[in-house]
Request: fold
Amino acid sequence: MNNEISVEDAAKKMSDNGVCILDVRTPNEHARGYIEGSENLDFYKGDFKSKIEQLDHSKTYIVHCGSGGRSGKAVKMMQELGFASAYNLVGGFNEWVKKGMKVVK
Reply:
């Protein structure tokens, strides 16, 4: 399964109700700007995996960090936990901003 999604495809998919945006950056990174409607779960926190396990496994998730490293690991974890649909945003938040997409500050 290809688990990567481009900024453009992610923006299209986000218009569907039921698509969740998961921001796995630190709270400090998130506070500097974020994608509207995103949920922030810090990848580096000790309870990250247990927080992921509590999410609805049947929903579609678009996961991002700053550039794609942490979110790639998070998506792999989600697949191992049996999530139906989880995508890593290629280039992460940095790419989202570079492409001129809407950001909440």
